[in-house]
Amino acid sequence: MEKFKAFLKRKDIEISVKRYAIDALGAMAQGLFCSLLIGTIINTLGTQLHVAALTTPVATVAGVQYTVGGLATAMSGPAMAVAIGYALHCPPLVLFSLITVGFASNALGGAGGPLAVLFVAIVAAEVGKAVSKETKVDILVTPLVTIAVGVLLSAWWAPALGTAAMKVGDLVMWATELQPFLMGIVVSVVIGVALTLPISSAAICAALGLTGLAGGAAVAGCCAQMVGFAVMSFKENRWGGLISQGIGTSMLQMGNIVKNPRIWIAPTLTSAITGPLATCFFRLKMDGTPVASGMGTCGLVGQIGVYTGWINDIAAGTKTSVTAFDWAGLILICFVLPAVLAPLFNNIGRRLGWVKDGDLTLR
User: Within a domain: residue 359?
Assistant: First the structure.
């Protein structure tokens, strides 16, 4: 057993929640951002601004035409797998081999592909690391083992994982349509908390395929955390903190939350209010790409996702136009209400002695 532990340590194989549920999951979200999300944004810009270079096909593969954004979107599987491999400290031959693994697991996982990529890429990466540089023909053995394990597991696991992820996502979306008030609170709070924790809310939403009203509630929860923390900590962090948290990530407050968990009450209460408002009153839906549901105001991706959904619905004939009420709902839920409610709740916390000066200072 000691020899085995020494081998794992030498290979930098750390079987832990942090390595897999935090590092790998967070990296997977970055891979999604650099492929699927960026591709969606490019397509949206091209369509709405009538930029021919972005709407004209630039490549044809197996009879399928791809625009610039389409090519980025098509590479989401490889991008996620390589990002996971990077987080797991894979050596080059393993890292590059994960391109094939990511493509296979994402394709075979169907709509729930991201979850399949997460599981398959982790196992393939760790097995690849285990055999890396153990033979004199490493350049053959390492890619062969990594790809073989990854593709075989993709064929075995990916369809089931993808189906399971989508069924869970469908259940959440069905429940939100059935009980928009209660589920609006639950989804908004849970996804918002996940965004601030050192895990990836975007990857969770992508893995579950969270769209529709549930996606709108997720957007509300993420915005409540990001805009809420940004505005209520303005006194301590000024403009730099407003920008870094407001369009960056509220995860920057995690160190302060560990020291004083009560600073988390204000944005979480805010999400419990904006979530049901989004689902019951404004009927805010995320009909764009699921990963945008868990991005909030990060790079305004959540808002771009909602807008993209509107355009898609108009193109499909299920929506006639984007109304003033649509815009009012998006602006109020994502920006105005979090900027008002979170500081209000935080001031109550200050009066109760739960929050003190300096508790929200970014260091």
Answer: no
In a domain, 86, yes or no: yes
> pLDDT (tens digit, 9 = 90+) per residue, 70-85?
999 899 999 999 999 9
Q: Does residue 169 lie in a domain region?
A: no
Cite the beta strand spans of 16-121 per DSSP E: 59-61, 64-66
Asked if residue 200 lies in contact with residue 111, where contact means CB atoms within 8 angstroms, the answer is: no
Q: Is residue 267 domain-shared with residue 330, that is, in the same domain?
A: yes
* 49-53, 101-105, 196-200, 259-263: range with lowest mean pLDDT: 196-200
- As to burial, measured by CB atoms within 10 angstroms (0-12 exposed, 13-18 middle, 19+ buried), residue 142 is buried
Nearest Cα neighbor of 341 from 257, 254, 277, 248 is: 277
The closest alpha carbon to 141, from 127, 120, 154, belongs to 127
Indicate the number of domains in the chain: 2
What size, in residues, is the chain? 363
Ranges of beta strands (E only) in the chain are 59-61, 64-66
Asked whether residue 192 falls in the same domain as residue 337, the answer is yes
Token duo for residue 176: 């939100």
208 lies in the same domain as 263 = yes
137 burial level (CB within 10 Å; 0-12, 13-18, 19+): exposed
Torsion angle defined by CA atoms of residues 348, 353, 354 and 357, in that order, rounded to the nearest 10 degrees: 90
Structural domain span for residue 313: 179-351
Query: What are 66's strand-pairing partners?
Result: 59
How many Cα neighbours within 13 Å face the side chain of 294?
A: 28
Amino acid at 287: D
Does 357 map to a domain? no
Yes or no: say if 112 and 163 are a contact pair by the CB < 8 Å rule: yes
pLDDT tens-digit profile of 331-340?
A: 999 999 999 9
